[in-house]
């Protein structure tokens, strides 16, 4: 049977519980027999009312109804459990796919900030679960009842069964059209809600800056504009809902009249007995109610599907990206030829951002042998962080390749990180200082953690904390200063003894004394000789730091040019003014 992509995605979500759902279906059909029993046996009693054994038809009715009630209870419980498992799968799957990079994270279609992405993932999954927990099971009940009742009518009188069947398109077409409109609107409303939340979170996150610059009115207006857009969509959604209710009521009236007229004729013609007509009329009444309920639940179901669509669509894409054999490299296009060279090699790397007409990296090539240190100097906005993201394999490339010993660089979970980086704004998690340094490498000895911390000046302040390395750093490391956070990120990278260290303005937030120590450490961590220690790619806007490196390259306008020697920096007017532009004095 052909389903719409939306239903297919939803069924894929329920598929792992297909055994439970098959049992739920079986129990539903068994229970629906109880619904059919009432009209059927009432008809039998009507026909036998003049006979002595009229009560003989009553006992089966009682027994069938009783077992039907028990079956219904078992069925509801099983369905509720299966739906809870589906919600867990949806949430865990989405979070895992975002973390793996298979699904867009902040800045993608789920939202601009981590808060917006989290709100979409949990919010969408919650809406789907709460709607479906109430609706899907009830809807399936009504559908099963409707089918059983229609089958009974057709069995008692094929003509009246056919009439009922012919009336069905009237039941379906009108509400379906309205349902589509509702579904579309529901999706738009979810997007508008997420946008409003993103704007509110952004404003609250930057409340200090907003107040300092007296921009409260502007921010409030922005939030109001988003709310107004959302309100407009919700009004349309309410109108569509009212239209949906009307569309589900009108066809039932038409069917009732038709069955009464034709049924009366069939009794007078002797085709059906009066008892059978009573049973048919009762079945019809229940059938119409069941179909009305099926249709009444449809808009809500459509809304639930609409709310989950983006998430399910992205999960489906994520599944296609990762077919069984492990994730492909997110950075190296499939058809790129690889050649074996030791160390890190950026080969003709191109990188673009959506919505930006010009590539941010244009054919960047650079190789670092083990133990080599290369500084890349770039002006503000010159593409430093983009180059670092490319070197770490964190951003898809538009062209070219990033290779380590001839193999594409891929951030793989649970494997030894051969290429490690320190971003310009490192992230800490709400854990202890020690756990933030080890982060995923909990097997490391405390002495190793302390040794790494000593190398970057973290030990000096860490030992003064109330619980030393076990001190909690607070949500997102809020209890540490910018310089301390940068130190932790550096210790984290060094602890892993990587083959390549990629550093983005690694000492910017450090105080001058520690900065000198750390710079010395980083510039020497390459083993001070080719072939030993990690290769270090040091990306910076500070001329004074770049000058200390044995090899220097300039990144400007997306293109990389390596200088003959660091001394050449003195001859560049742009570079000479660079540090002043950064607002950071040289040592
Ligand atoms: N996600 C993004 N979407 C669109 N454009 C982006 C994105 N990230 C960066 N850019 C743009 O790409 C260019 C390079 O950005 P990048 O952050 O790599 O520069 P940078 O040298 O690290 O900047 P800074 O000196 O501020 O650290 C900038 O013009 C920036 O506006």
TrEMBL record:
Protein's UniProt keywords contain Hydrolase: no
Keyword Transmembrane helix assigned: yes
ABC transporter domain residues: 344-582
The entry's keywords: ATP-binding, Membrane, Nucleotide-binding, Transmembrane, Transmembrane helix
Membrane topology label: Multi-pass membrane protein
Broad class of where this protein is predominantly found: membrane
Domain annotation ABC transmembrane type-1: ranges: 23-303
Stored Pfam families: ABC_membrane, ABC_tran
A Gene Ontology cellular-component term: membrane
First and last residue of the signal peptide: none
Residue ranges crossing the lipid bilayer per the database entry: 149-174
Subcellular location: Membrane
GO MF annotations in UniProt: ABC-type oligopeptide transporter activity; ATP binding; ATP hydrolysis activity
SMART domains: AAA
PANTHER family found in the cross-reference section: ANTIGEN PEPTIDE TRANSPORTER 1, ATP-DEPENDENT PERMEASE MDL1, MITOCHONDRIAL
UniProt name for this protein: TAP1
Organism this protein belongs to: Catharus ustulatus (Russet-backed thrush)
């Amino acid at each position: 049977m052909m389903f719409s992509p939306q239903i297919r995605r939803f069924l894929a979500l329920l598929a792992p519980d297909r055994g439970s759902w098959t049992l739920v279906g079986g129990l539903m059909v068994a229970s629906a027999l109880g619904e059919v029993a009432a009209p059927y046996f009432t008809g039998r009693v009507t026909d036998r009312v003049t006979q002595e054994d009229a009560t003989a038809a009553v006992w089966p009715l009682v027994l069938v109804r009783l077992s039907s009630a028990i079956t219904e209870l078992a069925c509801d419980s099983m369905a509720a459990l299966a739906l809870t498992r589906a919600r867990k799968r949806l949430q865990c799957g989405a979070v895992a796919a975002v973390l793996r990079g298979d699904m867009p994270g902040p800045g993608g279609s789920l939202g601009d900030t981590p808060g917006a992405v989290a709100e979409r993932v949990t919010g969408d999954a919650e809406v789907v679960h709460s709607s479906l927990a109430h609706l899907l099971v009830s809807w399936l009940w009504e559908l099963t009842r409707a089918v059983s009742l229609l089958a009974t009518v057709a069995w008692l009188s094929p003509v009246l069964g056919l009439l009922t069947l012919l009336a069905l398109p009237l039941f379906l077409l009108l509400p379906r059209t309205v349902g589509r409109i509702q579904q579309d609107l529901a999706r738009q409303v979810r997007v508008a809600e997420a946008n409003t939340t993103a704007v509110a979170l952004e404003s609250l996150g930057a409340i200090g800056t907003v107040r300092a610059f007296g921009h409260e009115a502007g921010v409030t207006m922005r939030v109001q504009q988003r709310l107004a857009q959302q309100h407009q969509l919700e009004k349309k959604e309410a109108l569509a809902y009212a239209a949906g209710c009307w569309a589900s009521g009108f066809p039932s009236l038409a069917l009732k009249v038709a069955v009464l007229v034709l049924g009366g004729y069939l009794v007078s013609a002797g085709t059906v007995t009066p008892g059978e007509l009573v049973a048919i009329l009762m079945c019809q009444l229940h059938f119409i109610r069941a179909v009305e309920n099926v249709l009444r639940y449809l808009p809500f179901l459509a809304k639930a599907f609409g709310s989950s669509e983006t998430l399910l669509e992205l999960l489906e894409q994520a599944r296609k990206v990762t077919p069984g054999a492990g994730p492909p490299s997110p950075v190296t296009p499939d058809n790129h030829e690889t050649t074996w060279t030791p160390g890190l090699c950026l080969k003709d790397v191109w990188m673009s951002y959506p919505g930006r007409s010009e590539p941010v990296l244009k054919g960047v090539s650079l190789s670092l042998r083990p133990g080599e240190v290369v500084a890349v100097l770039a002006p503000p906005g010159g593409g430093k962080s983009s180059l670092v993201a490319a070197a770490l394999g964190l951003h898809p490339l538009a062209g070219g390749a990033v290779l380590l010993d001839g193999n594409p660089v891929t951030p793989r979970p649970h494997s030894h990180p051969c290429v490690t980086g320190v971003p310009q704004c490192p992230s800490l998690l709400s854990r202890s200082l020690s756990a933030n340094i080890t982060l995923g490498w909990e097997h490391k000895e405390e002495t190793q953690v302390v040794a790494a911390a000593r190398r970057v000046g973290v030990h000096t302040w860490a030992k003064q904390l109330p619980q030393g390395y076990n001190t909690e750093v607070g949500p997102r490391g809020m209890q540490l200063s910018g310089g301390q956070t940068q130190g932790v990120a550096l210790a984290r990278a060094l602890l892993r003894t990587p083959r390549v260290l990629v550093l983005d303005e690694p000492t910017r937030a450090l105080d001058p004394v520690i900065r000198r120590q750390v710079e010395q450490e980083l510039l020497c961590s390459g083993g001070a000789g080719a072939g030993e220690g990690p290769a270090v790619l040091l990306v910076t806007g500070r001329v004074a730091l770049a000058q200390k490196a044995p090899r220097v390259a300039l990144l400007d306008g997306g293109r990389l040019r390596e200088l003959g020697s660091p001394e050449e920096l003195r001859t560049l007017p742009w570079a000479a003014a660079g540090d002043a532009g950064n607002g950071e004095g040289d040592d």
